[in-house]
Automatic annotation (TrEMBL):
This is HAD family hydrolase. It comes from the Bacteria. It comes from Corallococcus caeni. Gene3D superfamilies: HAD superfamily/HAD-like. Residues 1-22 form the signal peptide. Keywords: Hydrolase, Signal. One of its GO terms (molecular function) is hydrolase activity. InterPro entries: HAD-like_sf (IPR036412), HAD_sf (IPR023214). CDD domains: HAD_like (cd01427).
Amino acid sequence: MQPAWGPWALALLVAVPLQALAADPLPSWNDGLVKQAIVGFVTRATTQGGPGYVPPDERIATFDNDGTLWQEQPVVQGAFLLEQVKARVKQDASLAKRQPFKAVLEGDVALLSTMDEPQLMELFAATHGGKTQEEFAREARAFFQTARHPKLGVPYTQLAYAPMLELLQYLRANGFQTWISSGGGMDFMRVISEDTYGIPPQQVIGSSLQERFDEGDGHPVLRREARLDHLNDKAGKPVGIEQHIGRRPVFAAGNVRSGGDIQMLQYTHEQPRPGFALLINHDDAAREFAYAEKNGASLKAAREGGWTVVSMRQDWRRIFPEER
């Protein structure tokens, strides 16, 4: 499988005729129970006077990023850190003997693909402590301009899932605020969130390093510390949502990888007015990748909680914005 790609993931919206969008807001989703459940929830949430009506100011939707909005084999943040670690080791050779730095330098792509968020944030702290926010943003933007997926050969920003881009647009068209709540680095995602997903940087929640105000000889800046401030993974996700939004989501989407989205989906679904919990199952080896948790924790939680589970193989007509 070798996809053909346009300049940006959001270009798929241009390719879809307006009349088709009006008739079917989710054209990349196959007709079936999952699509019906999504449309049914949004219809109930926006039908004033109905039992499922959600006032506009409460229509909050949160999305995990890696493996939910775009691919995560490898984790994009890990690929970025590969370049950063190489530069850091030139300054401190002792890091070359420590894991996960050693594996990064040896090109252990398998390890990078399985790294969890705490490991990634450890690398962030080691490589970016002391840098200003502006310096970090410049490095992240430079990475996205040149980096390509090792297997698919296209920019990472073109690997957003077409069905999820449509879902984001569909929710916004119905008065929902769409937020990212990811275990990945918050500042890393903010660099590309608006161009890739239509989500402004202020609506991105993620893991973060501590920061300090530095007057900088009359030029004040925010400087990143080599210490973790918040790990927005697993039980940290509801905490981050409360800190940034101040409202419980009524719609949330995650995926099956490390169990990192379970608590966010539980937090969304289990409330006086049941929310909608969507879990993406990576079961399409032909068009993307097939993988799952060893203990099956996310799928087990979905069965017990009555969440809606997406089979990428069965429920998505296409995966990426442009496919042959």
